[in-house]
Amino acid sequence: MVQGKDFYGGTVTDAIAEACQEFSTSQEGLDIEILETGSSGIFGLCRKKAHIRVTKKEEGGSSGKEPGVTEQAVQGRRRTESGKKASAPKADDVPGQDSETSQISQESAPRNGARKNSKKTAPRTERRADAELPPPELPTDEVLAEIQEDITAMLRIMGFPSTVTVTLENYTVACHISDDYEEELVGREGRTLDSLQYLLRKITSRRLPERIMFSLDVGTYRERRAEELKELALELAARVREEGKTQAIPALNPSERRVVHMVLQDDKTIRSRSVGAGLFKKVLIYKPGRKKNYARKGKGKKGQQTDRASDS
């Protein structure tokens, strides 16, 4: 049995061209097995070359392997694979990937006639289907090691070389950066850290199985930030009970909003809800029955409905 010869190149096309030159024949005269399509890496680092295994066809027949593969076929495979992976977006594609509490969904539910129409839709069916899904596939140790290498390389390029550890915790890839440059990497109110987490989540999305979340922390910032938000939420809740005026915590990411909602959920005298659009929203803390007092100028009741819908 004739063994194939391995060729490498920046792309599959480059590797095939080198093979054709080596065997002094056209692509149609070769049996080509694509072992690795190659990768441009992150910011030009950690590049992977395309890898193919080539056997020259015998005259009047083939070597018994898969027929010659064209670059068009390679592109078709790439589109098919990327389509499969992109078909089911993960829940944590945004900074602070945790979902907010069910309290928000209850407050956001349409009322009166709108509630009747909502029965015709399929949210309940979808939630039931999600509950019946098997546990998600876990990433391999090799994938975790590659993610660690990418984060380490990115920090080195940024000028903040740090120690990075990547672990799997309860279906979440938890990436922890040492606190050597905590102030620079966290930024004002964690904005820089949230941006890094969002960027890295996008970079690693194709490597991670579906329904696996991603988190990024520097030192003990996330833990300290959660404690600060709990204290602030309790302080504002006490002020609402005393003064009766609605209080707000501005510009929180989803996981931070969840911390606020969770710490107040057992207090029957206080309510909390998120308002605004985009990734970062403010959280209102108010007495039951007073949330209508908060309305954007010029919107009236319609503006209130829009804010409630944004949390659903």
Taking Cα atoms only, what radius of gyration do you get, to the nearest Å?
27 Å
Q: Residue ranges: pLDDT <50 for 5 or more in a row?
A: 62-71, 80-127, 291-312
> Termini distance?
62 Å
Number of strands: 9
Overall geometry: elongated
Percentage of helical residues? 40-55%
Largest sheet strand order: 1-3-2
Number of helices: 11
Coarse structural class: alpha+beta
Beta content comes to 15-25%
> Mean pLDDT across all residues, rounded?
75
Q: Write the H/E string, N to C.
A: EHEEHHHHHEEHHEHEHEEH
Major sheet characteristics: 3 strands, antiparallel
Description:
There is one protein chain. About 40% of the residues lie in helices and about 15% in strands. It has about 300 residues and is of the alpha+beta class. The longest helix has 23 residues, at about 220-245.
Write a brief caption for the model.
With about 300 residues, the protein is of the alpha+beta class.
Write the layout of secondary structure elements.
Layout: E1 5-9, H1 12-23, E2 30-36, E3 50-56, H2 71-86, H3 102-108, H4 113-118, H5 123-131, H6 141-158, E4 164-168, E5 172-177, H7 182-186, H8 191-204, E6 213-218, H9 221-243, E7 247-252, H10 254-264, E8 271-275, E9 281-286, H11 300-309
Parallel strand pairs: 5-6
Antiparallel strand pairs: 1-3, 2-3, 4-5, 7-9, 8-9
